Amino acid sequence: MYLFLICSQLKLNNYNISMENFFQLNPQEYIEATQKADMSAEYAFFLKHITPPASIVDVGFGSSRDMLYFKKKGFDVFGIDIEQEFVNHALDLGLNAQKVDVMDYCPNELFDAVWACSSLIHCPSEDLQKVFDKILSFLKPNGIAYCSFKYGEYEGYIAEKYYTYLNEEKIKKLNLNIIDIHINKDALNRGNNWISFILKK
Predict the structure, then answer these.
(1) Residues 113, 129, 155, 105: is their CA dihedral positive or negative?
(2) Residue 25 CB: number of other CB atoms within 10 A?
(3) Quick one: pLDDT at residue 3?
(4) CA distances in angstroms from 149 to 25, 102, 195, listed in the order given
């Protein structure tokens, strides 16, 4: 999802931005703005590496758009998010979801895959390794994780929100087992590109 969330509650390196407060004010607007985005290219990229009925945890699911898609495709889907309105929306749709920060989440059973679609873009680059290590801990051996970021080199505040953009060079500096990578246009036609990559545990 295009969810600006995860580092709102991460207190890594004494860093904290109150993105949860942003969503408490705007959850319905966010759902309406993102639920119809054309994610077909991203789904195809991800589904090259996983088939149903594999289990997926959606980290920062927002409008539940992607969870609904994966459920219809026959996957066993679970979602975590820090915004209660998003969790309530998911439950109303008959989805399995929990309100919890990614760094506090400890799954009862490991998953075959993680889907983290634009849900990590507000984490400072110095904290990304810890976050990636955390989401990889949700996986079974040889499990995969999909992650996406805005493409580029920028890091800093835009309209009072902190952003970390990534490119191939910055990704390769992280200690990650990357098995696939691609660059795609913005699904909401906002003019920027995104970089997506698949990590393997």
Answers:
(1) positive
(2) 8
(3) 36
(4) 24, 17, 5
